[in-house]
Each structure stands twice: as C-alpha cells, then as structure tokens.
C-alpha cells in the first residue's frame, strides 16, 4: 500500500537559509489584507502610506503577541525548551493573541495620526479576515492544527476534497501508524471566506454605524472558531469548573451530527479550551457593545460618513462626501458683498470668511 505523499514544509533554500511555506503563506495573507485596506481607504481619503506604516508596526506586534499568547499557555513545555520560543516557522502562534497585539498597536497608531479608532478598524476588518483565511493554509502545509481522526471516505466522498488535501490530512505519529484527520484549517478558511463576502455587503449599507463592521467581524469569526476549535487535538486549554466544560460541550453538541466526536483533549492538561471560551465571550461582548454604543449615542457616525482627521479637521473624505456641502477652499476664501447702508455711499466690503462650514 502506497502512503499519501506529505507536502514539504520548506519551499526553497538560499545557502544556509531555508524559506518555509508557512512564512510565505503568512506573508501573502498580510499582503492581500494590506491591498484590501488600501483600496477601501482610498474611498475615505487615506493614503497607501498610512496602511503601509500600519503594517510596518502592526505585523511585528501581532506576531510577537501571537507567539507570547501561545507560549504562555504551553509554558510547561517552553520553560524546558527556551530555545524553541522564537521558532515560529515551526508553527505555534495563536490568532487571538495576534488580534490583541494588532489592536494595541492600532489604538496607539490611529490616535497618533488623529483618526477615530472605530472608523479605521472598520476599514481594516475585512483585511483581518482575509489574512486569517489565507494564513490557515500555512497550518495545512505544516500538517498542524488539524482535527480529530476521521475516515478517508468522509474526506473524499462526503466532503469531495481534492487529493492533495486528503493526502496531507493523513498524519503519521511517532510510532509509525497513520490516520486521517479533519482538515480544520480548511473549515476555518472557508468560514472566513463566507464572512469576507458578508463584510463586503455590510459595509455598503446605510444603517451600519462606526465600529459595527469590526464587531461583525469578531462575531462571525468567533462563531466559526467556537465550533471548529472543539474538533482540534492541539487546543490551548486550562482546568476550569465542571459546569463550564459541560456548558461548552452542550453548545457544541449539534456538530456531532456532521463531524462526530470532538477532538481529543488531555484531561491532565485541561478541560476547557481557551479559544472556545474566548470565542463565546467575544460574541457576547460584541453584541452588547453594538447595543450599548447605539443607546448611549457613541455610535452616531455611520460607516459611510466622511472620515475626519481630528488633528486636521479639514481633511475629511468619504464615499458620500459628494452629498455633503463643500467647504470653501483655504487658499481662496469665499467673498461676499456686505449690504450698503441707506443714505450712505460705500464701496463694497468683503465679509469675513465663514469658518463654520462642516463637511
């Protein structure tokens, strides 16, 4: 019997340097996200340099935070192997950690540039989802982040997956025995693709308020992550109360009809998958934030409103800017003729330019 061929994790070598597919795929995801942000940013008057600088600061912040998040949950291992902490090319980064790092960087960067955090993260939300959609294929090449055991029949006949995916899902353990696994990378990638289309549609709607596209991204991604995470065999976990573990299992139960049992989670390691719990909390928090921000008036601006730079208020642009009254040009102030008082003869006097125009 011929065993399925496993893909090589190294794309090519340059002397002593090995270039891994994992890094190439992550870089491609970041580039696609950047291009999407630049394209949408043009509608709001943001330059490409704005997003290039954001990427320059944001990507390292995201990678560092993602790795730290993963290492902290696996500290029992990395405390004994500190030299492996920086080896991210072998996998081992957490998306929620990456989001934490990127958001912290975003808060600082957007404020330094004079823009509302909520307005700019809305523009960037589809980029985040696109990057995750592509980045998951790095896990595929590394043969990691897969789900629990399944059958070749399920993969080929029920899911109708191509050979190169089915073959890569045949994982051989240290003892030399192999078994097929759920391609959770693919489930999450496809879920992200559908979410990306939804975000593209949502951002054209007049009812959407500032910050709500970002929350929609979090809600959509976290719903998928909650159900997909339970299939994995490498989840970060902790020892939580029994009622919490039972609650998460109960919420996941409908997935048994499609995928069967959950992926194995070593009870000595923990009984609550951290990403699953975090996904549930994010869904609830995002819904609450949308409601609260609308009720207390914090979400007055709409996604399609002109984007205002609070350090330079005249620099505003947006998809509907053409519908707004035009502000007088600074170099050529509007000149109005003052009325002539009755009984007097005066030359026309220009009024003081009006500085109260709004965009």
TrEMBL record:
<feature type="transmembrane region" description="Helical">
    <location>
        <begin position="20"/>
        <end position="38"/>
    </location>
</feature>
<dbReference type="GO" id="GO:0008961">
    <property type="term" value="F:phosphatidylglycerol-prolipoprotein diacylglyceryl transferase activity"/>
</dbReference>
<dbReference type="Pfam" id="PF01790">
    <property type="entry name" value="LGT"/>
</dbReference>
<comment type="pathway">
    <text>Protein modification; lipoprotein biosynthesis (diacylglyceryl transfer).</text>
</comment>
<feature type="compositionally biased region" description="Basic and acidic residues">
    <location>
        <begin position="343"/>
        <end position="359"/>
    </location>
</feature>
<feature type="transmembrane region" description="Helical">
    <location>
        <begin position="185"/>
        <end position="202"/>
    </location>
</feature>
<dbReference type="GO" id="GO:0005886">
    <property type="term" value="C:plasma membrane"/>
</dbReference>
<dbReference type="InterPro" id="IPR001640">
    <property type="entry name" value="Lgt"/>
</dbReference>
<protein>
    <recommendedName>
        <fullName>Phosphatidylglycerol--prolipoprotein diacylglyceryl transferase</fullName>
        <ecNumber>2.5.1.145</ecNumber>
    </recommendedName>
</protein>
<dbReference type="GO" id="GO:0042158">
    <property type="term" value="P:lipoprotein biosynthetic process"/>
</dbReference>
<feature type="transmembrane region" description="Helical">
    <location>
        <begin position="117"/>
        <end position="135"/>
    </location>
</feature>
<feature type="transmembrane region" description="Helical">
    <location>
        <begin position="50"/>
        <end position="73"/>
    </location>
</feature>
<keyword id="KW-0812">Transmembrane</keyword>
<feature type="transmembrane region" description="Helical">
    <location>
        <begin position="93"/>
        <end position="110"/>
    </location>
</feature>
<keyword id="KW-1133">Transmembrane helix</keyword>
<keyword id="KW-0449">Lipoprotein</keyword>
<feature type="transmembrane region" description="Helical">
    <location>
        <begin position="274"/>
        <end position="292"/>
    </location>
</feature>
<keyword id="KW-0472">Membrane</keyword>
<keyword id="KW-0328">Glycosyltransferase</keyword>
<comment type="function">
    <text>Catalyzes the transfer of the diacylglyceryl group from phosphatidylglycerol to the sulfhydryl group of the N-terminal cysteine of a prolipoprotein, the first step in the formation of mature lipoproteins.</text>
</comment>
<feature type="binding site">
    <location>
        <position position="136"/>
    </location>
    <ligand>
        <name>a 1,2-diacyl-sn-glycero-3-phospho-(1'-sn-glycerol)</name>
    </ligand>
</feature>
<feature type="compositionally biased region" description="Low complexity">
    <location>
        <begin position="319"/>
        <end position="342"/>
    </location>
</feature>
<feature type="transmembrane region" description="Helical">
    <location>
        <begin position="214"/>
        <end position="231"/>
    </location>
</feature>
<keyword id="KW-0808">Transferase</keyword>
<keyword id="KW-1003">Cell membrane</keyword>
<feature type="region of interest" description="Disordered">
    <location>
        <begin position="319"/>
        <end position="359"/>
    </location>
</feature>
<comment type="similarity">
    <text>Belongs to the Lgt family.</text>
</comment>
């Amino acid at each position: 019997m011929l065993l399925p061929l496993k893909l090589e994790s190294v794309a090519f070598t340059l002397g002593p340097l090995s270039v891994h597919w994992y890094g190439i795929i992550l870089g491609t995801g970041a580039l696609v996200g950047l291009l999407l942000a630049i394209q949408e940013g043009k509608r709001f008057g943001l330059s490409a340099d704005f997003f290039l600088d954001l990427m320059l600061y944001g990507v390292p912040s995201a990678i560092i935070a993602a790795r730290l998040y993963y290492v902290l949950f696996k500290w029992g291992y990395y405390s004994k192997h500190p030299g492996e902490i920086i080896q991210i090319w072998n996998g081992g980064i957490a998306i929620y950690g990456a989001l934490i790092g990127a958001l912290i960087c975003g808060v600082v960067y957007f404020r330094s540039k004079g823009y509302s955090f909520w307005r700019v993260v809305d523009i960037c939300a589809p980029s985040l989802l696109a990057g995750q959609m592509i980045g998951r294929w790095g896990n595929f090449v590394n043969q990691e982040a897969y789900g629990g055991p399944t059958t070749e029949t399920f993969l080929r006949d029920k899911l109708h997956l191509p050979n190169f995916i089915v073959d890569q899902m045949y994982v051989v353990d240290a003892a030399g025995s192999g078994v097929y696994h759920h391609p959770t990378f693919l489930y999450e990638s496809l879920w992200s693709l559908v979410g990306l289309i939804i975000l593209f549609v949502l951002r054209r709607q007049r009812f959407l308020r500032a910050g709500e596209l970002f929350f929609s991204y979090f809600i959509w991604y976290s719903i998928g992550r909650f159900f997909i995470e339970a299939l994995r065999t490498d989840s970060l976990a902790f020892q939580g109360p029994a009622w919490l573990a039972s609650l998460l299992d109960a919420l996941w139960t409908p997935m048994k009809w499609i995928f069967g049992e959950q992926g194995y989670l070593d009870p000595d390691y923990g009984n609550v998958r951290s990403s699953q719990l975090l996904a549930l909390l994010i869904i609830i928090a995002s819904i609450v934030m949308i409601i609260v921000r609308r009720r207390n008036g914090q979400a007055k601006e709409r996604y399609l409103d002109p984007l205002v730079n609070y350090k330079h208020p005249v620099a505003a642009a947006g998809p509907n800017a053409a519908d707004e009254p035009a502000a007088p040009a600074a170099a050529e102030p509007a000149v109005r003729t003052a009325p002539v008082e009755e009984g007097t003869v005066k030359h026309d006097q220009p009024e003081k330019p009006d500085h109260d125009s709004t965009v």
